[in-house]
Q: What sequence folds into this?
């Protein structure tokens, strides 16, 4: 059964997997908490979702870029620790497999569908800015070029980065 995701109403999702990407970055995999399949209604590479946690008696929402693929039956987010970051640090330190979170529908106009490349495109990202490009890379089959042999996150671990 598919449930249409209403942008102004959060969906309750459950963490079904969590792993460290680096010392200060985790990826989490979220699925619908009730076992249904959410219909992502046009999710596009480069968009983000907002996660909502009740922390210290207050609902706190923060936006995180999606690193999953359109059409997946789950959401994948890659979250980096932020100094004094209330929600990001909660996700890294406290949020565990089996825990639930409120999630607003994917949104955001800066994506590779609404802003298609003309002929060639160079996507330059660093730090947490790489996650919205992960989906764009896979969907549009861009080449991943790295000049630094000390890469923290390689979204395609089976490929060896080209070194300039």
A:
């Amino acid at each position: 059964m598919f449930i249409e995701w209403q942008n102004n109403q959060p969906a309750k999702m459950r963490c079904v997997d969590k792993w460290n990407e680096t010392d200060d970055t985790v990826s989490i995999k979220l699925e619908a908490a009730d076992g249904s399949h959410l219909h992502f209604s046009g999710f596009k590479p480069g968009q983000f979702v907002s996660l909502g946690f009740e922390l210290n008696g207050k609902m706190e929402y923060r936006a995180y870029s999606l690193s999953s693929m359109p059409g997946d039956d789950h959401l994948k987010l890659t979250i980096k620790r932020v100094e004094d970051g209330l929600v990001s640090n909660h996700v890294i330190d406290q949020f565990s497999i089996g825990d639930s979170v409120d999630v607003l529908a994917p949104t955001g106009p800066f994506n590779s569908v609404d802003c298609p490349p003309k002929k060639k495109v160079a996507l330059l990202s660093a730090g947490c800015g790489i996650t919205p490009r992960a989906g764009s890379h896979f969907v549009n089959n861009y080449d991943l070029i790295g000049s630094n042999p000390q890469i923290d996150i390689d979204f395609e671990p089976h490929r060896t980065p080209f070194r300039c």
